[in-house]
Amino acid sequence: NAGVTQTPKFRVLKTGQSMTLLCAQDMNHEYMYWYRQDPGMGLRLIHYSVGEGTTAKGEVPDGYNVSRLKKQNFLLGLESAAPSQTSVYFCAGSRGTSGANVLTFGAGSRLTVL
Amino acid sequence: GENVEQHPSTLSVQEGDSAVIKCTYSDSASNYFPWYKQELGKRPQLIIDIRSNVGEKKDQRIAVTLNKTAKHFSLHITETQPEDSAVYFCAAANDYKLSFGAGTTVTVRA
To answer: What would the pLDDT profile of A37-68 be if each residue is shown by its tens digit?
Structure first.
């Protein structure tokens, strides 16, 4: 089992470029999440999905879009990258158990926008 | 939405001493409170969690306490060891959405 896998691990973009981060899981997770981690700000939820074909906004959704066409995959897109989107992005999945929603994180994707 | 505050932001302890990290939350409907540990360059991993119907939970050297009335919960690490050096995040959840605190960087001095 690979668990939760993110690609790419590193990426450098120029302002205005677009890109997609892929999260793939083989743990049969119903729920999937995208967080960004910035120094001193913890993990902030960008978007999440409670099942195949569903997406919802988190705390900091502006500038990002997501899709969950298949249960195993959750894609995070940046249509026009900005320097403020320089961050480490973590994908996570969970069974969605009410009262015990344990997240399994991917290894992270470090994005730099110049 | 839920707002989780975590203190202190950094904590330095002598090996063998105890470490305590405190968190407060705002949403009285939150019912699940996990703690995640993130070593340098690694992904966050769950170390302990507590549900709203429990006041305290212990797992070897780590323990978590919850005061629902005051809306705060704490992580206690006893007999700290060098491998406890990491960033620790508390979180609060109402159903499936977790909101994280800003993190505490713990350094264990030999």
So the answer is: 998 889 999 999 999 999 999 999 999 999 99
Return the sign of the alpha-carbon dihedral for residues A16, A46, B101, A5.
Answer: negative
CB contact under 8 A, A48 and B97: yes
Mean local confidence (pLDDT), B6-20: 98
Chain B partners within 8 Å of A49 (Cβ): none
Query: Distance (Å) from the C-alpha of residue A7 to the closest C-alpha of chain B?
Result: 14
Q: What angle do CA B9, A42, A96 make, to 5 degrees?
A: 130
Averaged confidence pLDDT in chain A: 94
Burial of A30-50, coded b for 16+ CB within 10 Å and e otherwise, reads bbbbbbbbeeeebbbbbbbbb
Gap between the Cα atoms of B72 and B95, Å rounded:
18
Q: Looking at the predicted structure, is the pLDDT value of residue B107 above 70?
A: yes
Chain B residues with beta carbon closer than 8 angstroms to that of A99: 31-32, 51-52
At A72 the pLDDT is 97
E strand or H helix that includes residue A72: none
DSSP string, B41-103: TS--EEEEEEETT-SEEEETTEEEEEETTTTEEEEEE-S--GGG-EEEEEEEEETTEEEE---
Q: Which of A43, A59, A97, A109 to probe the B interface (max B CBs under 10 A)?
A: A43
Interchain pair B43, A90: CB under 8 A: yes
